[in-house]
Amino acid sequence: MNDLAGPHWGRSGTAGAAIPARLTFESITHRFGAVTAVSDMSLDVAPGEIVALLGRSGCGKTTLLRIAAGIERQTTGRLCLHGRVIADETRFEPPETRGIGFVFQDYALFPHLSVQDNVAFGLKRMSRHDASEVALRALERVGLRHHADDYPHELSGGEQQRVALARAIAPRPGVLLMDEPFSGLDRRLRDSVREETLSVLRETGATSLLVTHDPEEAMRMADRIALMSDGKLVQIGTPEELYLRPANLFAARFFSEINEIQGSAKAGRVETPFGVLAAKDLPDGPVTAAIRPSAFLLGDRGQPGHVLSARFLGDTDLLEIAVDGQDDPLRVRAPAGLWREGSDVTISFDARQALVFRASQT
Ligand code: ATP
Fold it and tell me: What is the CATH number of domain 2-244?
């Protein structure tokens, strides 16, 4: 069987349900010498919830995951599992007794063990017979039972990822941690592997924390997204909340390309070359309006503009449009084929899709 065979990997109902645990980070700070990798992070992951830790490389996501697993011990702060302190200044529960599963970025399979023995590895408290049975069931769930006797190097990247997932779920952990689990897969495979991983996570019911730098992946997989920058939490919320109501320009920029238009708030209003925006919660002063490329309207109303370039993207075209009073050209998504390079257009935008931030709120 190859990675793309069928919409489902294996037989659902074979994953074995965990008792989901609440995982709570309380003011966690972690330093590596002079580097503060995680700074005063608090995060409460509800039982059975899937939370994505999202951020650029180096923002501290992996460090936070390693602290949850017990591979790293935080400098200060408290980590609780179901309200019980498992790591603070005085206590430290070792990884093997935490009931937490881990899928590493490089899968970390043992090359000298068969697929089945890799999956059975974490089941040391069971008899050999029971461990083999449980390992086979986990392999069945990810559609790889027939590869039980093979060795990791005989499997494709996608299959190795599934073995790593089977190994992590086999002991029925209350919490499952995954560090960029799809980054080694090519695009073609990634979508189907993500979907199936999600259905395995839902089936096991494990509380899950997923590290990713890809906002689309976070939105597809997670109930809530914790956006991080420089070791700190920028915003936490549902995918809709982060996309539609980003807390600042950084969060807005993270989720999509935006056009940034400088302006000034006065009495709760911002005037732009394309229309007036409401900014009722902002004090008077400089602001930045963030407008997504899909929020512009081209037609017979608005500000005159000139199409500098038009790139065909399938369903839509991406246009660059020069507008008087605006230094940088606007990037606009428009229905495919309507406008060409050199066209004169008039441009306005859907004010409901524009976001306004204080200029210092980057
Ligand atoms: P990536 O997506 O690249 O893995 P990340 O968001 O997971 O990045 P971390 O790996 O947690 O980030 O790293 C956070 C910061 O801590 C970085 O500045 C990194 O260089 C530093 N760091 C991580 N591990 C160590 C270590 N063992 N010793 C020293 N510095 C470290």
Answer: 3.40.50.300
First to last CA, the chain: 49
Nearest to 320 by CA among 293, 299, 300: 293
Nearest CA to ligand 1 atom 31: 32
Residue 188 CA to residue 185 CA, distance in Å, equals 8
For the entire predicted model, the pTM comes to 0.88
Q: Do domains 2-244 and 257-358 have the same CATH topology?
A: no
Does residue 61's CB lie within 6 angstroms of at least one atom of ligand 1?
yes
Is the CB of 106 within 6 Å of ligand 1? no
Q: Which atom of ligand 1 is nearest to the CA of 180?
A: 2
Query: Cα separation of 64 and 231, whole Å?
Result: 9
- Parallel, antiparallel, or unpaired for β 344-349 and 303-312? antiparallel
Residue 260 and residue 290 in contact, taking contact as beta carbons nearer than 8 Å: yes
- Nearest CA-CA partner of 3 in 119, 214, 163, 116: 163
| Helices assigned H by DSSP within the chain | 61-69, 115-120, 128-141, 157-169, 187-204, 215-221, 239-244, 249-255
Domain ranges within the chain, ordered by starting residue? 2-244, 257-358
Q: Give the Å distances, CA to CA, from 64 to 77, 178, 205.
A: 12, 11, 22
For residue 241, count CB atoms less than 10 angstroms from its CB and return exposed for 0-12, middle for 13-18, buried for 19 or more.
Answer: middle
355 lines ligand 1 (CB under 6 A): no
Q: Mean pLDDT, to the nearest integer, of 117-126? A: 86
CATH architecture of 257-358: Beta Barrel (2.40)
Number of other CB atoms surrounding residue 308 within 10 Å = 13
- Give 176-205 pLDDT, tens digit per residue: 999 998 887 888 778 888 888 898 888 888
